[in-house]
Design goal:
Blueprint lengths: L5 H32 L11 H30 L6 H34 L2 H28 L11 E3 L5 E3 L4
Antiparallel strand pairs: 1-2
Helix pairs in contact: 1-2, 1-3, 2-3, 3-4
Organism: Nonomuraea salmonea
Protein name: DUF6328 family protein
Keywords: Membrane, Transmembrane, Transmembrane helix
């Protein structure tokens, strides 16, 4: 928005970050809840050490993703009316990226854990590798290419503005 103040932009950006996090946090919560119940099932005691470490990675990365996605609204409560919205927006963006990375790890390792239990390690590694590549490409690779796009094709990447840190950002995504 061209005629908004810095504070209005920070408010809008924070709301947009929270809206995006709402989608991811639901998935993290469901996955984390599932993972918390797994050790209490009867078959868990039969797992070998490799599968236990795989489970550990899935559980820990889901917990880490949960913390990252819950941090922005929690910090907003602590910093309420302190005039720190721009700091909170930048920090929340980092938490969102870290949360997405942790979610990709948790989804990948959880899927690998289940496929290894049901079938074999080879299929589990193949499926996990493909899922990891898909998540990395769709969540990070494509957007990174869009950021580096010069905007010559006339799409939304063509109207670049300078962010408060001086880096080019699309005015609709700032």
């Amino acid at each position: 928005m061209k005629n908004e103040s810095h504070q209005e932009r920070a408010d809008r950006n924070f709301v947009e970050l929270l809206q995006g996090a709402r989608v991811a946090v639901t998935g993290v919560q469901v996955l984390f809840a599932f993972l918390l119940t797994v050790p209490f099932s009867t078959g868990f005691s039969r797992l070998d050490q490799a599968d236990r470490w795989l489970y550990f990675a899935a559980l820990l990365s889901a917990a880490f993703a949960s913390i990252c996605y819950i941090a922005p609204p929690a910090q907003h409560r602590v910093l309420f009316r302190q005039g720190r919205k721009e700091t909170l927006v930048r920090r929340s963006n980092v938490y969102g990226i870290l949360g997405a990375l942790a979610l990709a790890v948790s989804m990948t390792t959880s899927t690998m854990f289940v496929i290894d239990y049901l079938f074999d390690a080879t299929l589990a590694w193949l499926a996990a590798g493909l899922l990891a590549l898909l998540a990395l490409w769709t969540w990070f690779g494509q957007p990174a290419l869009d950021r580096s796009d010069t905007g010559s094709d006339g799409d939304e990447g063509s109207s670049h503005a300078q962010s408060s840190e001086g880096s080019p950002v699309s005015s609709s995504e700032e």
